[in-house]
Each structure stands twice: as structure tokens, then as C-alpha cells.
């Protein structure tokens, strides 16, 4: 399942969490979490928001594009617009 949650630093994902369920950071406060009881408990613990795959793709693509626009306007980046990401 895809989760939007802001990392609070140390203890956000513990060693015990990693033993109980699979979790991967995608970027822009987006996480892919195994859908089991431990993963669902983690989502509740960190105050995460469950997103559909489509919502997660929209979020990551919007954030990536906004970052590119900001850097382009500031003159700190000169590469083409980022490609769309498919999860």
C-alpha cells in the first residue's frame, strides 16, 4: 500500500518495523508499505494517509515537477522536464 507520511527522524521506521513488514521510501514523504497487520499499525502510529496507486503516482509526479519548476526559475537547473513516474 502507498502511504503519505512525514518522517520524524530516528524511530520513524524501527528495526522491529523492518522485521515485521516491508517498507520502502519512494520520496517526497511517500512510502510503499506491506499491507499486513504490522504495516497497518505503523501507518496508524506515524499518522500516515493511505493513498491509491494513482494518487501516489500523481503526488510523486506533481512534487517532482514542482521541484523542477522552482529550480528552473531560480536558474540552478538546466535539464528537460522530468518524465512521469509509474509505480
Distance between the termini: 11 Å
Classify the oligomer: single chain
The tally of beta strands, per DSSP, is 4
Strand content: 15-25%
- Unreliable runs: none
Biggest sheet, spatial arrangement of strands: 2-3-1-4
Strand-helix topology:
Blueprint lengths: L1 E3 L10 H6 L2 E5 L2 E4 L3 H10 L2 E3 L1 H22 L13
Antiparallel strand pairs: 1-3, 1-4, 2-3
Describe the structure.
This protein is of the alpha+beta class and 87 residues long. The protein has one domain. It is 44% helix and 17% strand. The chain contains three helices and four strands. It has helices at residues 15-20, 37-46, 53-74; strands at residues 2-4, 23-27, 30-33, 49-51. A four-stranded antiparallel β-sheet has the order 2-3-1-4. β2 (23-27) and β3 form a beta hairpin. The model has no long low-confidence stretch (mean pLDDT 93).
Give a short synopsis of this structure.
By secondary structure, the protein is of the alpha+beta class.
Keywords:
87 residues, alpha+beta, four-stranded antiparallel sheet, 3 helices
Amino acid at each position: 500500500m502507498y502511504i503519505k507520511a512525514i518522517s520524524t527522524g530516528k524511530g520513524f521506521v524501527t528495526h522491529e518495523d523492518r522485521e515485521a513488514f516491508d517498507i520502502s521510501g519512494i520520496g517526497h514523504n511517500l512510502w510503499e508499505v506491506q499491507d499486513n497487520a504490522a504495516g497497518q499499525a505503523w501507518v496508524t502510529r506515524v499518522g500516515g494517509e493511505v493513498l491509491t496507486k494513482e494518487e501516489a503516482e500523481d503526488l510523486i509526479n506533481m512534487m517532482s515537477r514542482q521541484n523542477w519548476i522552482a529550480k528552473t526559475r531560480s536558474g540552478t537547473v538546466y535539464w528537460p522536464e522530468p518524465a512521469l513516474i509509474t509505480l
